[in-house]
Write a structure and sequence with these properties.
By secondary structure, this protein is α+β, with helices and mostly antiparallel strands. The chain folds into two domains: about 60 residues, no CATH class; about 100 residues. Helix content is about 70%, strand content about 10%. It is built from five helices and four strands, in the order H-E-E-H-E-E-H-H-H. Helix 4 packs antiparallel against helix 5. The longest helix has about 45 residues.
Length: about 200
């Protein structure tokens, strides 16, 4: 049936007396196969074949990509680029690790020094927080006594209380950040030691 359709189109072209031109084959949205020496507008966006005068395919044009397909291709390109960037970053870190340390003991010494610095900050902040909590409680009690008496709180006392309260909040936040940093740093050095041993084994 296919060859018959091609033959009829070719015969029609030759009978018309025209010189041979490209013959196109495409399938419309209903699944119907079409043959023609000219492409209608609706076929331009669809997959199509170019046939010679013997009905053999000499070229093929893919269907135009939908917006969704284009978006997916862009997403895949971005994912591939991100993966390549991660690989390059991992290689860079490996080079730095091998250039910085020659033994596991050196990594452990660097780890202990860094952790000790953070632990000192934590200890100082914890002591500061104890003092700030006492000061804030004292100021709070004075404010509450004045308010219970129905008197306005003196501006300077209110300012001192607000300042102590804010300082307490700031130092509590700082302490949380240093504790989180301590945990992250310990985990990072553990990963560095593991990777260092892998690289040395290679």
């Amino acid at each position: 049936m296919r060859h018959t359709a091609i033959a009829l189109v070719i015969a029609g072209t030759l009978v018309s007396g025209n010189a041979w031109s490209a013959l196109y084959r495409w399938v419309d949205e209903d699944g119907t196969v079409h043959y023609s020496d000219k492409l209608p507008p609706e076929a331009i966006q669809r997959e199509r074949e170019v046939l010679d005068d013997q009905g053999r395919r000499v070229n093929m044009y893919p269907a135009a990509k939908t917006p969704a397909q284009k978006a997916e291709e862009a997403r895949q390109r971005e994912a591939a680029a991100a993966k390549q960037a991660r690989l390059e970053e991992e290689k860079r870190k490996d080079r730095v690790l091998l250039q910085t340390f020659t033994t596991v003991e050196e990594i452990e010494m660097a780890r202990d020094d860094r952790l000790a610095q953070i632990e000192a900050q934590i200890a100082i902040t914890e002591g500061k927080l104890e003092r700030l909590r006492r000061e804030q409680n004292q100021l709070k009690q004075r404010v509450e006594v004045i308010e219970k008496q129905g008197n306005p709180v003196p501006p300077q006392l209110q300012e001192n209380y607000d300042t102590a309260r804010q300082s307490l909040l700031d130092n509590e936040k700082f302490l949380q950040e240093r504790r989180a940093e301590h945990t992250e740093l310990a985990e990072k050095f553990a990963a560095d030691i593991e990777r260092f041993l892998e690289l040395k084994a290679e």
